[in-house]
Sequence to fold (1268 residues):
Amino acid sequence: MNTFGHSFRLTTFGESHGTALGGVIDGCPAGVVIDDGFIASELLRRRDGDSPSSLTTPRKEPDTTEWLSGIYEGRTLGTPIAFAIRNQNCQPEDYEALRDCFRPGHADYTWQQRYGCRDHRGGGRASGRETAARVVGGAVAKLWLTTQGVSIHSLRQGFEVKCIIEGVPAGIGNPVFDRLNARLAYAMLSIPSASSFEMGENAGDWKRAAGDYPDQWIAGGEGATLTATNHCGGVQGGISNGMPIVFHTGFHPPVTNPDGMVCRMADGSLKAVAPHGRHDQDHSTRLPVIVESMAALVLADFLCLRVKRIDELKIEN
Amino acid sequence: MNTFGHSFRLTTFGESHGTALGGVIDGCPAGVVIDDGFIASELLRRRDGDSPSSLTTPRKEPDTTEWLSGIYEGRTLGTPIAFAIRNQNCQPEDYEALRDCFRPGHADYTWQQRYGCRDHRGGGRASGRETAARVVGGAVAKLWLTTQGVSIHSLRQGFEVKCIIEGVPAGIGNPVFDRLNARLAYAMLSIPSASSFEMGENAGDWKRAAGDYPDQWIAGGEGATLTATNHCGGVQGGISNGMPIVFHTGFHPPVTNPDGMVCRMADGSLKAVAPHGRHDQDHSTRLPVIVESMAALVLADFLCLRVKRIDELKIEN
Amino acid sequence: MNTFGHSFRLTTFGESHGTALGGVIDGCPAGVVIDDGFIASELLRRRDGDSPSSLTTPRKEPDTTEWLSGIYEGRTLGTPIAFAIRNQNCQPEDYEALRDCFRPGHADYTWQQRYGCRDHRGGGRASGRETAARVVGGAVAKLWLTTQGVSIHSLRQGFEVKCIIEGVPAGIGNPVFDRLNARLAYAMLSIPSASSFEMGENAGDWKRAAGDYPDQWIAGGEGATLTATNHCGGVQGGISNGMPIVFHTGFHPPVTNPDGMVCRMADGSLKAVAPHGRHDQDHSTRLPVIVESMAALVLADFLCLRVKRIDELKIEN
Amino acid sequence: MNTFGHSFRLTTFGESHGTALGGVIDGCPAGVVIDDGFIASELLRRRDGDSPSSLTTPRKEPDTTEWLSGIYEGRTLGTPIAFAIRNQNCQPEDYEALRDCFRPGHADYTWQQRYGCRDHRGGGRASGRETAARVVGGAVAKLWLTTQGVSIHSLRQGFEVKCIIEGVPAGIGNPVFDRLNARLAYAMLSIPSASSFEMGENAGDWKRAAGDYPDQWIAGGEGATLTATNHCGGVQGGISNGMPIVFHTGFHPPVTNPDGMVCRMADGSLKAVAPHGRHDQDHSTRLPVIVESMAALVLADFLCLRVKRIDELKIEN
Fold:
C-alpha cells in the first residue's frame, strides 16, 4: 500500500511520466501555518541536492506544489491535505527502447513479476521522482513538529547520511514491535537505493565492548543532558529517552550505467542497451532532504499517536 | 501496539515475572500440521543458544507451549491460535532493589516516561524473555512457509547475524513504502538490542563502486540462478527477484554489568547498585532463532497478502 | 481517518468550496479498463438523482473527473489512482452569515468541538458534496467487480434504499468482528444522513417468528438457488452463502429548513438565520448511487482480501 | 481478523469446545483498577441473562476469568492484558451427528466455504459462546470509561435492545468514513444474530417529517441539555454532540429448532437431523450485556484515539 503512518499519514501517488505526482496528508492537526516558501526550498533541496553539483540529472522540473484541499485562510483545517506536482517535459519516446527489457539493478523485473504489467517510462511509479511527494509530506510534518519544539537536520558522509532529531521528549515510541528505532529503520529502508540503517551517535557505536557500550547517567540530567554519551542514539527499549535521536542510513550507488548496460528481455535472453532517458549519475546530494522527510513523518506520527500517561488520563481511584 | 503483521499476525503478551507469556497468531491458513517437536526445539534454541554455552543465563524454564485454541485434530483451523508459556521459578524479591531505580542502558527510564508505571521485575514486558512468544509465532510461520517451499536459516558472526531465506518467488513485496526490505528492517530492529540492518550477500556490499554494484543477469536464469551475484540481497525496488533473500542484523552487547552499575533514582540522583536477578552475560547465541522467527513472520505475512497478478484475477476485456 | 477499506482502499479529500474534491484509490488490481462514460453517468446519477426531479439543488457543477495517476494506455496499472473534481461556481459570500453560527441538525457544532476550527462554507468537508469522490471510487470498484461477475443495483423506497448485490460467491466475509454484514453496516452509516441499516430480502424479515425465520435449503441448490427464501440477506455468520446479498438503509430527511432556522451562536445564544447557500430540499433520489458505491467498495475490498482456501494454498502433508 | 478496535483493541480467540476461550486487550491505559467482582457479574449477565429465565441454555460453565498478563498489584500496566476462560463439560460426542452436515440458518455452510474446514462442535469459533471474551473486554473498557465519566446501560424491547451511553463529551468521532455511528453499527452487526441498527432516542425517529426531525438548540445548553430532543441519538456528522448517545439493535430469533431440522449434507442432499447439543431457546436476555460490551469497546477506542484540539496542541504562530 502507498500509505505511510498510522495517525499522521501520507499517501503518495503518481508515475514518473504520468500526469502528476502528489499525495494526501491525513491526520495533520488543524491550525498549522503552511509556509509555501519552506516547502519550495525543500523541493529544491531534493531536485538540486544540498550542495551545488553538476552531477545530478539535468531534468529541470519546476516542481510546483498545487494544493487541492485541507488548507483555508493559510492554515490546515485538520482535513486531508491533497497536493499535486505536475510532470512536465515528458518525452515518452526516450524510453521506448526499454519497453520490453529489464535493466540490471533496477525494479523493472520485480515490478513485472509483482503486477504483470508496468509503466516502463522512467521507472514509472518506481522512479526516484516519487520522493518529491515524500518531501512535501515531510515538509508539512516539519512545520507541525516545529510548533512542538522538534527539529531535524542531517549530514552527508559518502553514500551515508547521518540524521539528528532534537527536541523529542522522553517517552515517545512503543515497546515490543513498534519501536521508534524500528519505525525509523522501516522509513529509511523505504527510500529508493537505501541499503543499511544503524542507530547511534557514531556509526559503529554498537560494536563497542560490553563494558564500554551503555550510556552512563549524568546526575540530575534530563533531555539532551541525560547521559554522558549517546551510543544508543537516544532510544532505549524502543522508546526515546530525551537525548537527540541519531541514526545513519547507507545507500547503494546509482545502478544506471551511463555507458549502457546488458538487459534481460522478456524471453530471458540478454541484450546490450544504451540508455537515453534522464538518469542521475550521483543522487547522493539529494538524499539528506529525503532522509529528513521520512524521519519527520515518523516523528509526527508518533507524537500524534502519543498515549497519554496515567496522570493525564485522570484515573482517580 | 503488540501486534506484528497485517495478514499473518502475531500479538504477544506477558511480563517476564507475571503469570505467563504467550501470543495469538491470527491469519494462519487452515490445515497446517502443528509439529510440537519442532516448536519445542526452536524454543530450546532460544533458551540455550545455537551452540552449547556456559555463558547464557542459568534460568532453566521448561518453556512448555500450552495451546489454547485454533488447533483441531492436529491441524490449524484458520481461527486464532492462542498459546501460553507459564513463568516458573519467579523470585520477585530478587528485584526489589530495582523498584525505584533506572539502570543504565536498559528500558527502565524510557518505559517509566512512556507509561508512568511499570513492572520492574526482570524488565517486565521489556524483558528479552518476551522473545519466546515470537519464537513460537515464528515456528508456526515456518511450518506454513515450508509447505510453500520457503526455508530460512542463519549464521552468527560476532554480534552480527546473517540470515538467508530461500525459495521466495519473484514478485513478493510492495513498492514505495511497504517494501520487503523495509519490513525486514522493521522486524529486525524490533528485536531487543538490535542496532543495525543491511541488505546484501556480504556485509558492506552496498559500499561497492557504482560500476561494480549492480547484479548482472544470467541468460535464461530464474529463481536462485537469476543473477551472477547477489549484492542487493534478493530484493529490487522493494520486491523479491527470486534470488535468496540475504540480510545482516547487528546487536549491541549486553548492558547489564555483572559487577554492578550506577543507576539513576527517581529524583535524578545516582546510586551504585549490585544486580541480583538472572541476566545474560552473552545473548549472542540466542539471537539466530529470534532473527529467523521475525523473518518468518515477515515472509508469511507477505505471502498471505500476495496480490494476485493480472492474469490470475481473470480480467477479460 | 479519511480512508475506507483495507485492501481496495479509497482515500477522499476536499472541502465543498475549496479548490477540488477527489480521492486516491489504492489496491485496485492492474489491468482494469477505465470506462470514462460509465464514471460520468454515475456522477450524473449522484448530481441529478435516479429520476428527473426539480427538487434537488440547482447547483450545476460539471463534476468532471481529472485522472492524475495510476492509468496507462486506458487500463489501471495497479498503482494508486488519483483523481480530482474541481469545484466551480463557488460564491463564498453566500455563507458569510454562517461563519459564527451552528445550524440545528448539521455537523457545524460537532465539527467545531472536534477540530476547534472549520471551513464553514457549504458544510466544508462535512458537505454531502464529498460523496462525489465516493461515487468515483465506487464506479472504479464496480468496473473491477464486473470482471469478477458481481453486479450491484438498488431501489428507492421512501427515504429508504434497498440494495441487491448479485454474483458474490459463497465464503466471502470474516467471522467474529469483521463480518460482511458488519462492514456493510459500517459503510452505509458512513453516508451523510444515514440512520438505519438492516439485512434481509424484505425490511423487517428479522422480526419473523423463530420457526419462520431460518432459510431452508433447496436440495442440490447453490449460488442464487441455495435456499428457498432469503430472510438473512445472503450472509450467515458474517460470511456470504452465495445467495444475493440484500440490505436496507434508511436516511433521515434533509435538515436545512428553506424557511430559515434558529442557530446556536458561539456564545451559546440563539439567533434566527435565513440560509442563502445552495442546499438540497430532497436528496433521496441521489442516495441509490451512493449506497451502491459504498457497497461496491466493501465488496471489492473483501474480494481482494479473500483468503485462499486450504486446497488453493497447496498444503500437502 | 479477530481484532476489534484501533487504539483500545480486543483480540479474541477460542472455539466453543476447544481448550479455552479468551482474548488480549491491547492499548488499555495503565493504572486502571481491575474489579474482578464486576467482571464476574458481567459474565453472569451474559450466561444467565438480565432477568431470571428458564429458557436459556442449561450449560453451566463457571466462566472464570484467568488473567495471564498485563495486571500488576491490582492495576493495569498499559501492556497487553491476556485472559482465558476454560471450557468445561465438553461432550464432543454430542455433535458427532453434525460433522458432515450444514444446519439451516447457521454459519456451518458459509464457514466451510470460507476455510475449507471447521470445528463442527457446538458451532466452533462461530458459537455464541465466543461473546464471553467480548464481555470481559467490554467490562475492562467500562472500568476505564467510568474513570472518564462515561456510563453505558441498555433496555431489552422484544428482540431489540436500546442502548444509552451517557457522559461522552462533544467532539468524539470522525467525520467522513469512520463516524461514531458507523463504528457503533459495525460493532453491533458483529454480534451473532444481529440484523438491524438505528440511531435515535426512539426507534423510527429518523422517519419523522423533514420539519419535525432536526433537534432544536436549548439556549445556553451543553452536554445533556444541548438540544430539546434527541432524534439524532447524540451524533451529528459522525461526531458526538454531548447529548446521550442512543441507538437500537435488532436481532433475529434463534435458528436452532428444538424439534430438529432439515440439514444440507456435503453432497448437496438434504437430511432430517435431531440436534443433541446444548443450544439456546431464547438468547434475548443475554443480549444487553453483549450490546453494552461492544459499545464500551467502541467508545474506549475513540476516547483513546481522541485527536487533541488545536489549542491543546500548543500551536502558536
In short: The longest strand of chain A covers residues 20-26. Residues 160-252 of chain A form one domain. Helices of chain A lie at 36-48, 108-115, 131-147, 180-189, 287-305. Chain A touches chain B through 97 residues (CB under 8 Å).
